[in-house]
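Two entries, shown back to back:
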Amino acid sequence: MPVLRRSAVLLTTVCTAAATLVGLGVAGTASAAPCGNAGLLGSSPLGNAIGNAFGSFGSSGGPLLGKSSSQGPLPTVNGGNTTPVAWVTGAKSPNNTEARFGISGTDLGIAWDNGTGQTLMAFGDTFGNCNAAGQQWRHNLILRTTDTNPADGVTIGNGVPGDVRSGAVVGSGAPTFATESIPALEIAGVEVTTIPTAAIAIDGKQYMNYMSVRQWGGPGRWVTNSSAIAVSSDNGQTWATQPQTVRLNLPVTVPGVEQVDDSNGKYQQNAYLRGHDDPYIYQYGTPNGRFGAAFLCRFLPGNILDLSKYQYYTGDSDPTKTWSPDTTKSKAVVTEPVSELSVAWNNRLQRYVMLYGNETTGNLVMRTATAPQGPFSAPTTLLTSQQLGGVYAPYIYPSNGGNDQYLYFTASRWLDYNVMMMRTDLSRIPVG
């Protein structure tokens, strides 16, 4: 969807819904301090999504980045089954993303195999020089790597203007500044930011599911306008939102945008999974924020952009009724609270592995199942808030470097507002 058309749709949507949302008691603006400031871009603060069980600070605490960057050394964890391996981003990472890409702080790092020998990584709200105008805020961006051995982190090559396989998308006038992938209106109460939540490659194209955040609320809570799929035919260099994939999360109807039903709210943040010995791609969804359950739907790869072809898990024991095209029949496969999840098949365990954060406890947890719909095992704790506070968003990395004893995943830390590679020793994980 062209930027102007997308902006018009969003403005129409949120303006029509404004009175209704006020009546529902949507939280007002709350400022954050990603660069040591009281807010961001004047009327468009990031908000107080930071300030939660994961140890973040919010507007009442300290800065995430400080005046330039307050990233610390790679933290250590004593004991347990999971340990940090290396910083992926930040000035203190081996990639030195501050100098090479203008990235002093960012989060997420959703990683996926692009199908042609590279791993692509999608990051959320990103900042550069905190003393520059707007702190060089980008709502999201893509980095690329050919590194298949995450045992010592991942190496990201230089960005090369016009090179769709280089380490970052950069322009000829700024070859050391990674550019934004999906824009946002930057209007508080309309659209504050756009954040990737899942991505997958199908037949040479890249598909990224993202959420449009209307308003940050209290700790771990925010309101979305919608989720949608953007497509790239040039390896993440450019992206185009597909209007037919928009799942509105507002009580309005927009002409030209197919409305499914109120169950759109179950799929505002997502995770993709390729079935093992199975033709389907599965999409796990959660509501906006960090307190919802996880739901499940599936589709054949060629139907990713056609929501009418999706099938939703109903939980019905009758195998002829287990999957339905009716979104209202979509039942939870994991109970709340589930936040920022990822799922992948694991050869060592011969099970599907799900990682996510528990907002109530501040822990990162793992669950396993022999089928995408479960039943999933009881959660195994990978990292507690006491071991390493403020860590969130565990996204499974698509390579283990040839050593299946370890599961690698990226995770973000509020204190440093950067992404690190983590490693879990699967020999210490009970499988039941």
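entry 2 starts here
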Amino acid sequence: MTTVIKPMIRNNIALNAHPQGCRQLVKNYIEEAKSLPLITDKNLNVLIIGGSSGYGLATRINLAFNAHAYTYNVSFEREARGRNTASAGYYNNRFFAEFAQEENIPYDDLNIDAFSHDAKNKVIEHFKSSNKKIDLVVYSVASGIRIDPDTQEKYTSSLKPILNDFKGYSVDIAKEALIEESLECATEEEISSTIKVMGGEDYLLWIQALDKADLLAPKAKSITYTYMGSDITYPIYKEGTIGHAKRDLESTNMQIQEIMKKYDGEAIVSSSKTVVTKASVFIPTVALYASALFKVMQENGTHESIIKHKHRLFHEMVYGGNPTLDQSGLYRLDAHELDPKTQAIVSEIMNQITPDNFKAITDFELFKQLFLEMNGFSVLGVDYQLPTDSSDF
């Protein structure tokens, strides 16, 4: 059975994905990564926790197809069921494997809840049986839910302010319209639950497990991604529940650094630029901020694709020995975004936005394009009028 797959978006949630669109997007990412300078000529064994989409996928593609590293990806993705397509991350993993096989690039995937003890045990068993030590651990998990591996209690993250109630515009992607939203301050329980899901606890458990199993190689590195953003978004992000979780992740990195010291290694936290994610479309102001930022950075010539952004991190900073650091020791990959002149222009645009003019004075079209691409739609090189065989689901 064949059918034409069209994007289904409800309340800014993509309910389906296009398999051939995901395939083409992965292919486009690979070709871009291969066109960039070699990251390193070291033979790397890389464990990526959360490598099926976003920055995790961009990291994996750069390291596999540019540095020819062995990558082992742990991610939890939905398979197709009946008439429902699989998740975009499921297709991304599938087609990454297809292209890696074509070029004889080694890889492995484990589709499992990364928060579970079972996930850690299976990864350890694999690396021990393969007689491989891990040179780089990348922790890039993006989940709104976590089940505690010991108590089995379910925790859910919240996108809320903490200091004051917040009012701002959200963007309805499907209708291309602005909606004014108000968010009340988070409760203490919501704050602690968000930290439980998105903070550093699970990251530390991973590094402790790998250390105990003696799987970290000499001079091994670990890296996780955080986000600061602009003061325009501070009230809802940096000073909100997600920001508190990110600060917990950063502080936990100090404990991880103590472990990595035993291997003469390094634990890195990299602050990334604003990108379109499944979460960002729900946060008032953030989608508009991103749309304005993309416009300004493109005009300045400082806008980077997600592939180029992560390539710069590994090529220049992690393996190039030339990191941009702040006083806390964070790798500031977001320096171009937070350039004062760039921020001044973005702020000016944000102050002028209305429901009538936002598409004209920002690059909302690019924001929407990137949102659709996350799920395999609107990808250059795909004919979306052609029916897709259901076996591709």
